[in-house]
Amino acid sequence: MHRIDAGTKLIGLLGYPVEHSFSPVMQNPAFGRAGLNYVYLAFAVAPEDLPAVLDGFKAAGVAGLNVTIPHKEAVLPHLDEISAGAAHAGAVNTIVNENGRLVGYNTDGAGFLRSLEVDGGVTPWGKTFLLLGAGGACRAVAAALATGGAKKLYIANRNYSRAVDLAESINGIRENAATPLRLSVEELARRSPECDVVINATSLGMRPQAGKSPLPDPAAVLKPHHLVCDLVYNPPRTLLLAEAEKIGCSTLPGEGMLLYQGCEAFRLWTGMEPPEDLMRAMLRDRLYPANLFDAV
Ligand code: NAP
């Protein structure tokens, strides 16, 4: 690691909790490889402390921030400017200090699109998607898919009113692009045959809920022609992806999205191209040893 001195610039991660984040192990070596005098540190910030922490970091001249659960939506009113992509997503995961102004971006949607295209071999244009979830990550992915020319998005969520809200906001980007669904086997089974891609954007399947799947009856919903994507990256091979493979689907784990959203944040903070191969290797180093003991 490079030597920290009086000129070192700080990038902070704000979340609650943050100790399980993979971003510090990905970003610090990347700064070092790029010859940048930056350091990336994680801060556990309780929701009631968020406004004061943002003010403090701004006053101290922080170079940038990442924002994770539960602050991605709560930061919006405290920022000086919000990018169009973050406004569409209704959530911010990356903040850049641009000459003393905190500007909010969302790199989750772009990260997912890049993983879909590069790792999954699929472009959204003209495709039909079944999205499971309606939380912050789902909002970012849905907005990116709609902007990227997806033909149709079915959005199924446990809390149906959140699915309705998200579908309405997507239809504000492109008329009639989204339809809300209830998270019931019957509704999913009726719509899934016309879908090209199924995406889990719920937190089910993420450690410590690794044994859980958003689809209690996967055979009723998944078809061999589906590409099944999971935003969950830990464990890398979720129960949903294991079940999808048995049905004959192709699969895409959340690891690529995590890598590419981090690469995009690196670009925004530094204006430089990130050392993507190094960041992928650092991420894999953290992801795969754990998986050896807890594979599903
Ligand atoms: P969030 O805003 O808290 O949303 C959680 C979602 O999961 C909601 O739709 C929620 O439904 C649903 N859910 C939770 N428990 C459920 C249950 N028991 N049954 C059915 N649905 C349930 O979280 P988020 O930020 O969107 O993150 C979602 C997942 O994406 C997390 O696992 C996160 O780690 C992952 N993620 C990955 C990346 C990446 O780079 N790969 C980036 C961002 C997020 P309700 O609305 O009904 O509560």
Q: Spans of 5+ residues with little confidence (pLDDT < 50)?
A: 291-296
Q: Helical residue percent?
A: 25-40%
Globally, the shape reads globular
Major sheet attributes: 6 strands, mixed
Small molecules bound in the structure, each named once: NADP nicotinamide-adenine-dinucleotide phosphate
Count the beta strands.
12
Average of the residue pLDDT scores = 95
What does it look like?
This protein is α/β, with parallel strands linked by helices. The protein has helices at residues 23-33, 50-59, 84-89, 108-118, 136-147, 160-173, 185-191, 218-221, 239-247, 255-270, 276-293; strands at 9-15, 38-44, 64-67, 81-82, 94-98, 101-105, 128-132, 152-157, 178-182, 197-200, 227-230, 250-252. α1 runs antiparallel to α11, α4 packs across α10 and α10 packs antiparallel against α11. The protein is globular. The protein binds NADP nicotinamide-adenine-dinucleotide phosphate. NADP nicotinamide-adenine-dinucleotide phosphate binds at residues 69, 108, 111, 133-138, 157-159, 162, 201-204, 206, 214, 231-233, 254, 257-258, 261.
